[in-house]
Amino acid sequence: MRPTSCRFRVVNVTNFMERGYVMNMREKIIEEALELFSSKGYEKTTISNIVSASGSSRGGFYHHFQSKEEVLSAITDNYLNRFSDLIQSVVTKHIGSQLELFIKLFETIIDLKIKETSDWSELHKLYGFKGNLPIILQVSKSFEKNVSELYESIILEGVSKNEFKCEYPKQVAGLWTREFMILISQVQKAHTLKTGFEGGLTNQIEFNQKLLSQMLGIDSKDMSLIEKLREYFEVMEGLK
Known about the structure:
Elements: H1 13-39, H2 47-54, H3 58-64, H4 68-93, H5 98-116, H6 120-128, H7 133-160, H8 169-193, H9 200-216, H10 226-237
Helix pairs in contact: 1-2, 1-4, 1-6, 4-5, 4-7, 5-7, 5-10, 7-8, 8-9, 8-10
């Protein structure tokens, strides 16, 4: 009888130890790239700059990313994944009406923006840099798509429960999401230009409240947006 052949796999312990380094290096590349995009601008930042700042090598960089564009995608994906996890959790855990969920989603997003205000100076440099348009467009496009789809599902559920009277849920969700993004931008602009919250900005918010209420077929008194946006503005003002 022939003896059974046994093969033992030789494990390279060093490889296991290096895996933590490899994973950390990817995050280090992303972190330093974000810093460079903020200080130099996306267009003027080179792969060599990122390699040098992160302490990587060109081979190490290309192990994780094929191009600078892929690093940009990773930066935006990191942000949007955290954002998606948060708002999806709000939707999943919600108990109550669809109108309450509609407003809760709005407030959750504003709360997320409020948490970002501690990094506002860096974010303002990043988004305000002339060469960083690709970053702005990529984040905005993904944000709009994710939020619009969530609002559409909320409106559809509200219609099915006779909470909303809306003939075009998809279109209303898309329109509201774009207006929402504009309102956030206007609050930031009011802070940056020191034009204040009251007046033109409050009029715009009240107009959006009434218009949105009409499109959802609800009483405008039930749709309150202005106080949360005022809170966001006041937090930003507190950074002075």
